[in-house]
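Minutes, project check-in
Item: structure for the 404-residue chain
Input as provided by the requester:
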Amino acid sequence: MRRLHACLSAAAAVALAAAGTTALVAANASGATPQDALSNRWYAAAPYLMPLDNDPPDPAAIMDATGLKAFQLAFVLAPAGGGCSPTWGGTAPVSSDTAVKSMIDTIRAKGGDVSVSIGGYGGTKLGQACADAASTAAAYQQVITKYGLHAIDFDLEEPEYENTAAIKNEIGAAKILQQDNPGLYVSVTTAGTADGTGWFGKQMLLEAKAQGFTPSNFSIMPFDGGFSGAASQTSALTAFNSILRSTFGWDEATAYAHEGFSGMNGRSDTGEIFGQSDFQTVLDYATGHHMDRFTFWALNRDRQCSPPDNGGRTSGTCSSVAQNDWDFARYSVKFAGATPPTGTPTPTPTPTPASCKPAWNSSTAYTGGTEVSYDQHNWKAKWWTQNEVPGASTWGPWQDEGAC
């Protein structure tokens, strides 16, 4: 979805030391002073910012001009040359980073804070490169510890979310980080479609359900998918609410309290146009339904192109629509200042696994709709099949229906 990720300038790969058990413990052990957290509302409103590429804007100037306090820094990936260690954009090791750390220090000195986003469109993700959920979590823990983070975003999209094993690692890692870092704000962002999210997005939600993982929110990106203005986006958010309800058994209010919007300001990769009035309409929808998150891609683009091009091209450094600098960031500030819902949504209990269906047999021919069990999961045949192992292929004949 986020196709405007230019390659970052390379830095030599450096082996990373093992992370501590929590960011707070590690920060104290190193003598660093832990940063006070902002309210969750600010992390929920943090727009994306590429700190090392796409002509990064000065966050201090944005803070002064708009009152924005939180930034979503993107993206942490696996090393482009291979390995299970965190890097910025696949090239700049987190372990030896000083540039992003300097930006974070500037933001915090002005009373703000950051979340860090992992994944995004393109590149190799740690969930693909690391052996399992525990090693994936250990790599992300290094990022949390290095920067003393109170928030992290899992941006699960193409091509990673088509990889069942990688998504299992990412969701498992998110659950481990949530447990090991009390109070950590965890958002999960994925592709948006007209009916909420696509097949792979739904499979990701089922994986979260199977693992008993509930983040602060699941956000969709309703752009680059044939959308036309705010009405199509709010329609997708309504549909996504239904998906959350049916997947997790939530009522409507609880689903909205765990739902987020991640938009694209100006001209999207596919030529869709989302202007200030569209953002206001979606903001009204988000606050009116007490949604948990409202963010956008990206602050690097939150300025008018020079010369103005009236939507003629998509740029990573400007919006291609008429605007003043940081017009779209002001909607994030409005969301952060909106009155949150009263009370706390009822925590989602760890789901009780369903009863296992009859065991899969390699010699049996199965017709579409037949249910079997394999590897402690139930599976439903999507079409006629024989001797095709459930889960062996993302594109295979079996649909995972969760743990049993």
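Outcome recorded: The first strand starts at residue 48 and ends at 49.
No further action items on this chain.
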